[in-house]
Every structure is written in structure tokens, then in C-alpha cells.
Specification:
The chain is mainly alpha-helical. It contains five helices and two strands, in the order H-H-H-H-E-E-H. The protein has a two-stranded antiparallel sheet with strand order 1-2. The protein is elongated and about 55 Å long.
Length: about 160
């Protein structure tokens, strides 16, 4: 039984830590390195925000059916963000067509001037890559793997195994 509780604790920790780390990383990229997000980048953030809220709420009900359900929903949110990341990466790599419009999110005090002077942020161009993998690609890899880990750890809890 002790191992089952340990497995559950790991699931709760992954469900909270991974989305927090990924959101922190994209804000460092945005504000520290000047990589503004495109519309599809924002789409990937929203499920992570939900996962953080769900995993945070789950930690108040740790070990109960409600807590486990909230952690599963957090894992699902991470999976959704990863799948959006896969779609976005495919657009960046030219595997399929994505959005046909570009966006900008910083309008300031004079929205018209901001719109006229804002740089276009393209969804089909990766602003940064490492070994050929874009930020969207890394989101896919990390989020899908982490969601699978959350589900596996919770599944082991049901079986009573670490």
C-alpha cells in the first residue's frame, strides 16, 4: 500500500511540476529572449494553465477519488497541449497548412498605432530550434510523455504497485 501512495504522489507532482516548468520556460523565452508567442503558441498555453489549476486543486484532495480525478484531468490537459504542439510543429515544419492569419497581443495605450506598428508573429516559422526541434515540438514531446506518465502512475496506484 505504501508503494501505491508513493506512485500517486509522483503522479500529483508530475501533473503540477511539468506544466509549471513549461509555462515558466515559455515566459523566459518570451520576456528574457524576445520570442513573442504566435496565436498557436497561446493555444498551447491554455491547457497548461488549466492543468496547473487542476493539479493545484487536486493537491488539496490528495489520495481521494476527487483528487485522482482532478489529476487525471490535469494529465488530459497536458495531453491536449501536447497535441496542439504537434499540430503547431507540423505547421512550422511545413507538413500541413496552419492558420492563414497572424496575430499580435501587445496593444498598449494606443491600439491603432500598436496594430499598425506591431511586428507580425507567424505561426509557420519556428523562432527558435534546438537540434531541429522547435518550442512547439518540445511541448509535444514533454507534454505527451508527461501525460502518459501521470496516467501510468495513477494506473499503478489502482494496481497497488509503484
Amino acid at each position: 500500500m505504501q508503494q501505491a501512495v508513493l506512485s500517486s504522489s509522483k503522479a500529483y507532482m508530475v501533473a503540477l511540476a511539468v506544466p509549471c516548468a513549461l509555462i515558466a520556460a515559455v515566459y523566459v523565452a518570451q520576456f528574457g529572449f524576445g520570442l513573442p508567442p504566435c496565436e498557436m503558441c497561446w493555444w498551447q498555453r491554455y491547457p497548461h494553465f488549466a492543468a496547473i489549476a487542476l493539479a493545484g486543486a487536486a493537491s488539496t484532495a490528495r489520495g481521494t477519488r476527487l483528487g485522482d480525478a482532478l489529476v487525471r484531468l490535469a494529465g488530459l490537459a497536458m495531453l491536449i497541449s501536447g497535441l496542439i504542439g504537434a499540430f503547431h510543429a507540423g505547421v512550422e515544419y511545413g507538413w500541413w497548412e496552419g492558420l492563414t492569419a497572424c496575430s499580435s497581443s501587445n496593444l498598449g495605450n494606443d491600439p491603432l498605432a500598436a496594430i499598425m506598428n506591431a511586428p507580425l508573429i507567424r505561426c509557420d516559422v519556428a523562432p527558435w530550434t534546438l537540434l531541429g526541434v522547435s518550442l512547439a515540438g518540445f511541448n509535444f514531446l514533454i507534454s505527451v510523455a508527461s501525460a502518459a506518465l501521470v496516467f501510468a502512475l495513477l494506473g499503478r496506484r489502482k494496481q497497488g504497485v509503484v
